[in-house]
Amino acid sequence: MDYVNDLVTILPELILAALVLVIITVDLFLPRTLKWLLTPLTVGGLVLAGAACVVVWDVNEEVYAGFYVVDDLSVFFKAATIVVGILSTLFAPSYLQARRIPLGEFNTILVTALIGMCVLASGSDLVTIFLGLELMTMPSYLLAGLHKTDRYSNEGGLKYFLLGSFASAIFLFGVAWTYGLTGVTNVGEVAAALEGGLNPGLLVAIGFLTVGATFKIAAVPFHYWTPDAYQGAPTPITGFLSVGPKLGAFALLVRIFAEALAPVRAEWLGLFLVLTVLTMTVGNVVALTQVNVKRMLAYSSIAHTGYIMAGLAAFANAADDGAAAQGIESILFYVLGYGVMNIAAFAVVGMLQRDTRRYGGLNSFAGLASRAPLHAAAMAILMLSLTGIPPTVGFFAKLYVLLAAVEAGLAWLAVIIVLNAALAAFYYLRVIVYMYMRDPEDEPAELDRSPSGSIALAISVVGVLALGIFPGAVLALLEVSAASLF
Amino acid sequence: MLDGLPLLSLIVFTPAIGALLLVFVPGTAHRAIRWIALIAALVTFGLSVMLVGYDPAGAEFQFREDVPWIEAFGMRYTLGVDGMSALMVLLTTVLSAVAIFYSWEPIRVRVKEYYVALLLLMVGMLGVFVALDLFVFYIFWEISLIPMYLIIGIWGGPRRIYATVKFVIYTLVGSLLMLVAILAVAIAHGNETGTFTFSYEALRGFAYADTLQALAFVAFFLAFAIKVPMWPFHTWLPDAHVEAPTAGSIILAGVLLKLGGYGFLRFSIPLLPDAAVTFAPIIIGLALVAIIYGGLVAMVQPDMKKLVAYSSVSHMGFVMLGAFVFNEQGLQGAIYQMISHGVTTGALFLLVGVIYEQTHDRQIAHMGGLNARVPGFAAMFGLFTFASIGLPGLSGFVGEFLVILGAFRYHALVAAVAMVVVIISAVYMLWMFQRAFFTVPSDWMQRYWPKLRDMNRSEWIALSPLIFLVVALGVYPAPVLEMLAAPVDRIIQAVTDTGMTGLGPLW
Fold first, then answer.
1. Most Cβ neighbours (<10 Å): which of A23, A140, A412, B474?
2. In chain A, whose CA is at the least distance from the CA of B70?
3. Nearest-by-CA chain B residue for A471
4. Per the domain annotation, does B1 fall within a domain?
5. What's the pLDDT tens digit per position in B88-136?
6. What ipTM score was computed for the predicted complex, to two decimals?
């Protein structure tokens, strides 16, 4: 009865796959006036998948002949994925409907991408990982270009597709190279093959894998596709793109660098440190100069990538397992917290773009506090969280990374992170300046107050504050998750 | 009698409860909003008065509360007060109540948000003074930042946005570096002892490596020195003060600057005593520069508020001087000066606000002859001017005298330099007083002359606690000094225990 057991372990993925089919079918028969039902349907399915994550928690099994692993690390990533999915589903409908983008298509593609992210989290073989990666990014390209009649969306989608597939190819090349030199593709076996040390050929493989993977997380200098793709995509989708694929890519990064390449961590650490520092600094400096909030958030998401990468650097530099685990835990906490706050921040930008001619300029935020005090307060909390001011999840996430870095003997990196955070404060707080301290424009942007968006915003803000004040509950889960690597 | 009552938590979070209540009051119900805010502030003050029950001969930290918070990181919600923090809490609650009461008339737009911000600011400030866990301390430290950012940015003057962004960025750089230092210290301690904790009592008295001490001290120094502000990190202060609304200035000068001074005395020196000894001469040098520079620049200010702001730089220099001479008089004087400066400067800003509300101008040259028209106002301005100069019998004298005494024991030359400034401060304060209140009214003032009114009842009420304090602290300092004796001894103890040898060679 092994195969039944195997099926149970992939319950979340199965539910998501079924959900895709259900959405497609139901969408066919729903009259136009009832299309909104797709949103509760999708959310319901996602919640079910989330419940399935609880079922597979603590299973810790390798299934399907070692191609797939259901450990707590992967389950954590899956749960985070589903949280991101639920928020995206709730934020999108009103924006999409205003632009006549079919909701059914969006939900289908979104859930497909989520499956890809789940596979990516659980892939324990370079082949499965690549499969998951493609299953995640293909729908993402579609999502970026979903607004067919908008040329920015087209441009963004195309750029994303071209550069993304290029990166996938490079990554695949790295996989092939690894296989050629070690003769294995299983992550654990690759790690075992590397125990003895590194030969120059593998260095090339590591190079390709690094380039491919850092492309996907949009690390500098492989970030050029991000701002255009992010700005062009429909705003709530941008929120998803800035978080979802990144989450998946970090799952991949952890799997490859912290597991397969862990024995040779000293070899990639140097390269990684350079990328980390570059990523956060370039992201922040360029974000400073943006007057379009959507674009600013795009660059700021690059900066956040840098902070998360610091967790991996801490892992690599750590003297003992405890400190190394802390590095991984900090990544997990950061992607979760970042996911919630960033998606919600993009959603608020989207809510101000109800008028389809508006492109998310800073001006549309002017005087928002007097027109929509609750939304403005929510956005202010999100901005403070992105800055890293307590008591928000953004603060705690940053603290975790700092702690891991200092613990791993990278205090100088921690200093660079905090200097970056201070720099970032300038542009995040500028949004608050506009909302609270400027008078509105002559024709202020109308705010979208659709119930699903407002509910999601409320959930996000409560989450941002709750995780910031009482992170203890999640920390226990993190510890267990990260422990699967050691 | 109060066993089991979490008094400190009540003090810290009563304003938060007030702020939460305000959220549910409609924004147009100005009267209700003001009353709720005032009652929250008064209740907080009432609770803080119970801290007078602090027993100077008893345990170091009293009214302790200790609850595990984030156990994975060894963070605990630990609160407690000694004599120094109890006094700071009292100063905060008094000045906050005054600021909230005074804002009654001047604040007419976004009243609700304003009081929410003020109350949250109280939470942050009070939390800093009672926190005994470095992490909790840091959280409250940061929480105090944002409300002030909003208060200056929304209800401030014409250049408010520039001023408030400068204020935030300056402070944030310092405090984030401090966060790294806190982590580094906690980790160093944790690796050595095996117990990972942020508890202040556990972390102090631990022999940290010299390099760590030096770097951590510099990080703490930046955070606190920016807040104090010490020369040359003071440039945000005049901007912030000039643009802040009156109540914002009262809190800013009265309490927020004290966070910096308190940070040095509570954290920098006892945690990193070797580094403190090593860096003391540099800090004393900077303090002297601040004292003289602040005084000289204050002398040439045409704007009343800016003058008082620069005088703060000078007075806070005294605090730093007293803190780093490491003797009883100096330290007692430093803390006393913090309290006295809070009261007098708070009052001076309030008084400047009284005239500004009527003329919307603060240029000293635009005043003149006010004494004839508004004698009550003039008398009060005179009182606090003298207190600021340090006239015996008023609060300023005690602190300055003690600091100079302490400085003399450190080095006669240092005391001599500090002494000169007492004269400079007399020059700028009295000169301002003379130009504004005597001589003939300026042409500008003539226009307002018929409408000019003396202080009204609510302004008197707002000022009365400060009048009481400035006289009481000047005439009878003994109870305050008694409360300070034990904390000061502990600071000196922490420093002398190291043998006063300072750090070894670092590189």
1. A140
2. A472
3. B70
4. no
5. 999 999 999 999 988 887 878 888 888 998 999 999 999 999 999 999 9
6. 0.85
